[in-house]
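Shift notes (night). Ran Transient receptor potential cation channel subfamily M member 3 while the centrifuge was going.
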Amino acid sequence: MNSQAHGALPSRSPLLPPVDSRSPRLLWVDQAARPRSATMTPATPTRKKIGLKRGTSATKEKQVMDERSTDLNLTYIKSHFKRKECLRYVKRSATEEKMMCCCGLHKEQHLPLSLLLHQLHQTSRPQSSIMEVMDVEGEDVVLNHILAYNSVTSRTAGRNNNNRESREDNGQLSHQIPSLEQNWSSETHLTNLPTNAFGTITFINETTGSNKPAKYVRLTSDTPMCDILTLFSDYWHLMDPNRPQLAISVTGGAKNFRLDGKKKATFTTGLIKAVKSTNAWILTGGMNVGVMRSVGEAVNQGQYMVKEKEHVVRGIRCLGVVPWGYIRNGEDLVNKDTNVFASVRYKVEDEVEHHETVSLNGDHTHFLLVDDGFRNKYNSIDGFRTELEEAIMEEELRGGLGIPVVLLLLEGGLNSLLKCKLALRRRIPVVVVAGTGRGADLLAYAASMTCHTPSGRYVMKKAHRTQLMQRISITMKELTRPDLRQLCLEYVVECCTHLNMVTIFDINSHEDLDRYILYALLTGKSGDGETSLLDQLKLALLWNRPDIAESHIFPAQPTWPSGSLEDLMTIALLEEKVDFVQQFVVNGLVMADYLKVNTLRHLYNEACQMTPNSHLTRLLQRSSHNQNVYYLVHVHQLMEVVMRKHKDPPYLADTLEAATTDPMVGYLTFQDPYQELLLWAILSRRNNLAQYLWQRTESPLSCAVAASALYKALWISLGAKNTDIRSEYWANMDVFEKLASDFLQECYNLNIMNSMGLVERRNGKWGDLDCLELAMLGNNRKLISTPAAQASIEFSWRRGMMRAPNFAVFLANFLPLLIYLPRIFRFQKLGDNRDDLTTLQKFKVFYMSPISKFYLHSTCFVLFLLLYSYVVLFDFKYEMTIGETMVLVWMITYVLDELAEIASEQASTIRGKISDWSSSVWNRFDIVSISLAFIAFGLRLWRKTFVWGRIAYSINTTVFYCRLLRIYHVNYHLGPKLVIFYRMITEVAVFLGLLIIFILGYGIASQSLLNLDRNYDSFSIVSLANITHDVLLTPYWQMYGELLLDQLHGVDQEVCHPTSCSPVTTTCTINTTCNTQPDCLCENSKDYSWVVNMMLIFYLIIGNIMLLNLLIAIFTYVFDEVQENSMEIWKYEMFRLIREYDHKPIFIPPFNIIEYLWRIGKKMWKLTCRKKRENLEEYMKESLETLRIFEKEAMQTYLAKIDQSEELALYNSIKRMSEKIDKISKYIDQKEDLEEIEDDLEWIMNEAKEMKPEQVPLHHNTSSCQQEDEEEEKEKKDEKEEDDNEEKHVGFLSEEESSNVDIGLELTHLQRRVVESRPCSGVSRAGTATLSRLKTEVLTRRIDSLQQEVHDNRKEVTGLLHKILNKMNKT
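Came back to this:
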């Protein structure tokens, strides 16, 4: 054993210097086995694709570094790890037929002396001198020297360097040299040689392991733990890429153990869940048998890959600590050349024979092959493994790794119980998986009989020890010798003395093994008094186990010191652990005290550092001009861009200068801290956290609307290529839109007027915008279409009027006296004394309402169109006329209207206001019409451009008349149709982009055959117009049926090519003269008419049939989409129209200039002359407080309805029923335990019948039994008192609530009753029979009742399942 087991570990100081975390890690892999792509930089494939060489200077440097790392790794392995070899053959027994040495090898299997001398890395003499001495003095003398040296080095191995130097004295002997005739001893006959087995194992079985090879190394059982830990961290890189937070050591049955069915699923799921939640290591025996094989199967099922820099490694690290002498085919693992890492192909054999070696398990990722010098037999290495676990658990400052360890016991025998005893001695908590058999069930049974005294000790009574011994004889049948059973009893009793570190998990009754594993670690740590509840809470947060924190940590301390949870809250927020955030808030953390400017600034900077290339980082870099540290003023600037308005003094105060000069700025708090965290969560893409934070905000309605608008703005700010993030933003925008609309609907159901008040309440953080304006900013049509929002919009439309028919409003604009007719117009009682309005007030209310302004301005615009049409048709002269002058003045007043609309937009910057104003299609119409009108006016002033001025005036008429469609938005039927028309314009543009390709292709091809005499030399504007007409317009008209077939025949005229002519001499007669005529190539367009006709056929097929039908299909889709949401669209456009006319002046153009002058004057008076300002906050204080209380109550009601709907959901009902069925099925599976009880009862009866009455006198027997009954009652009374004290001092693991009877506990109680019911030594035959019969009847009745309960539960579940299936069939 290592002498440093209970002290501080020596510092891990390998031959190599410590590896810097920022430098490339040392790669302990076989270069020959590594894929070539693994050594390339990520840019290598790209370089090859673009024509560059694969190799770069960085690639070559990396290859050199890999080679150097391999050499350094080899140096470390060979210099720090040894193996044990037997020096001399000594027969094990004279009577044994097999000529086996005491080490387990045959004589011929021992290494020759010459080979031993060659492999010794250090001796008392040089190797050459030893060989000379062997020739002179003989082999025996040299062997004595080797044994003498080995006797020193073997005892000093495993200690630190200082101890090693103090004990070694250059080969000088410190004790008597043993003779060659001395009996075999491991201290004298085993020597340490350099290890010869290290490298990687590739398991060739198809169903075993993964494609990644497993690493292994052979080492001695006395290897210093510091060297192994250095191997783990610096060479095997087990701490990368994520540091493990737990090590789970699994021990148990080795030969015949196997989990099947539900138990296997429970174990696999729980183990893998615990490993993944903590990035834990798994430590096992590493062999392909028993519990180690079950662990391997679980690892295989849950294994995953992670990227470590440029390498891919397995996420679950499963370490096997295997005895070297018990490995099947272990000789295959020996390196052929110790100067390189071995790459071994290993076949796993499933057959397990008694007392034979066993194969390695292929699902393990790393192997420590522990060599104790013995071969071909199993020697327990539990001591080595326990020391390794202790070293892993030791603090880093003391040379360990600081990783907590938990031991998991499944089944197991005497060795497993010894392992548990050693682990508990070293303060390693143990989880006992009851229900797996043998040792685990025995320890669980013993734990149920252990009492907790008020002094804090765990004790077991003598009577219980007797029962435990009887249980051992039944459970541990392989322990045939009494001394072994007594040893087993001692192991179990000692384990029970550390019961505070033992956690019992019943695999038949529970499924959350991971919870018990993590809880065991917490209880184990709390038991030693070194870890406070806060440290336990840190571990639970690190493991992301809020269930453990909620059930075990927070109940132990109801109140927490102020500020103790703040650091944990920061971690929970950054890691988006919503359940922990909720528990921190519930258990005393005050968010108003926690969230300060410093805290929020830290959260933003940490979020950017965690994801350097995130969307938030890029946005903040723009607002901060690429600074490394972001302040809240940068967030404020970002909010102003995406949300148009943002006002919050703490944001403006947090600047670089202020933080440097005034530290108190960092301690400023926020009015609504949950709202600030909500914005942070949205920007940092912590969406689940955002939904929880929204529930706790002061104004949930406005926060939900602002959140949806913020998601919409972030969605717009991203490019189209970021499809994943855009989809995420869009989905969360829909979520908050639904939350806002559903919550507002709940408020409307509770109180209509208060819900309208919430809609109209302005939020100072967003520049005094109300919820409807925020909804319009985010295009939130769902909220605007809710009844509460529509009630507010309707009130704004007829502001102050309860009844105002549309036609009556139109007439009242010209006949003001109609507004005083109560049958037509009805006003709200908003007078000075809450009574009717006065005559003047009614007049003012009517003409200031948006509905009155709408009809008045619409009538004015119709008059303007009539005047404009008259001027264009009849009064457009070269000289300016009165009508044209009036039109020009009218246009100038419209310009003032548009400027006023721009000024009323929500954005705080001019650019933002223009952007918001231009987002409306009608404002675009206005800018086009006004611009075209002034262009037309400028052109008509000059004689040369007068004609173009008339054309511009005429075209502008169409634009003005299209602007008249804005009036149709008031109508429910016509409003959505305008949206359809606007959407179709975009689709037509896309269609034209497709059509122009076919038009150009057909037009140019056809004209090239029909017009053969076109010449570039005669090119002019006119010819360009003709070409454009022939190429573009002719195919366009042909698509609509104007085929122009007469033009497709071409001109009957030949066109000859002079350069193609060749002279031809004809034969002449005597009476005729000979002449030479040229032979030229001539063309006629009529010859190509058939080709043009064929092209026209294909063009019409594509244009008329395919493209036009495609356009019709697109229009149909747009129509269906808009028609489906026509109500929402109309309500949204109606709100925009109301808001537009709410800001319009009362006077119509051109008289509106008067009101604009009055507004400017009033603004100047407020800024300069007004002395007393109206305190609106004081005036609205009571109303705002009422709305705040109402909103909180509505939020509670809304959340309660959500919880209720989730509980009543069919899926959850089926899930709960399924859990209940599983639990009942587990109780049914315990029928075997019932049968075992019946067997015990039968055994009692048989024993009672065989007892003789004359063994003890009857009167003595009676008094003895009475005395034992009195002692039994006294013991029960003491047990009851101890149980009461136990409840005061120790809290056990809370059991799951259930409506069924806990049959498992009842059966345990019955088993205890069976043991207690066995007759005492002096009972007569009649008394024995009577006592046994009575107890048997009681137990039988109880068992029958339990079986009846199981039957009733099964019947009830069956009926409920039928109901669920019938309901599902109906739905």
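The two ends are 69 Å apart (CA to CA). The chain has a mean pLDDT of 78.
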